[in-house]
Amino acid sequence: MSVLVTGGAGYIGSHLVWRLAEAGEDVIVVDDLSSGRRNAVHPDAAFYQGNAGDHALIASLLARHGIDSVIHLAASISVSESIEDPLKYYRNNSGVSRLLIESCIQAGVQSFIFASSASVYGDASFDDVDESATLDPISPYGRSKHITEWMLADAYRAHGMRYASLRYFNVAGTARAGAGGWSVPSTTHLIGYANKVALGRESVLNIFGTDYPTHDGTCIRDYIHIEDLGEIHLRMLDHLRAGGISGPLNCGYGRGFSVRDVVSAVERVSGNPLPTKPGLRRKGDTARVVADSTRLRSLLDWTPRHEDIDVIIRSDYEREKARSASR
Fold it and tell me: For the whole model, what pTM was predicted?
């Protein structure tokens, strides 16, 4: 059996492709390399540069490789950019997903795993959100993910293609040495940027909003290690192939950390003070989003292995430190 991974040269995708290849899966990667890196892809994976919405390309790959399962990660991911350019997100996320889903149904693909997002919940206030919570995304990015979840649910009812909408919370960290991929992208991820500040590669960490109704005024998020997320995908793939139930699933630990909590953790890990600069809130940011992961743990018999925030930060910090030393 073969697995197609769209966006497989990106941060999450490249780590996942390595996990799949190490598990003995025949992996095919499609990535347009707009943000991914070709050299991050596992050498045993078949790589094709292209767009996941290219019907001719996808149809040929599904047939040529006998693909039974698809993991769809390809997407634009910046909340703030989605507010400035919403149509880009409806095109790159919702539009491409529709075309890909159609190609998969026509080819008889059995299982489809979609990289959704906690952003579909919108402002979740102070309750840990479970999968039954009302979806009320407040950004075009979140809405584009919600639309794709709708499409998959409707396609399942009409055509029977089993699916999982994995609602990622904040993915962070770096895989063990030699496992491929790269560390957290610094431009859009708090932990990645904070580690670069700790290493002196950036001068200051901007804190966007210090007046939120949280314990220290900064946003609270649920961080999940990239390796634990990879394990979830492997278990979900087995679950769907065995005819398991379809639907959404939260991918988080159920533990929230504020921006200032993360700053303190980076200082502990690095041993260096972290210069910060308070600023205004960013559009589309919510005060708090933390997962209720009860269903995930029960359905997939999953137990996290890397849920300590210091472990998550250290994995990325050590990779960045090694890179700094090699420059």
Answer: 0.94
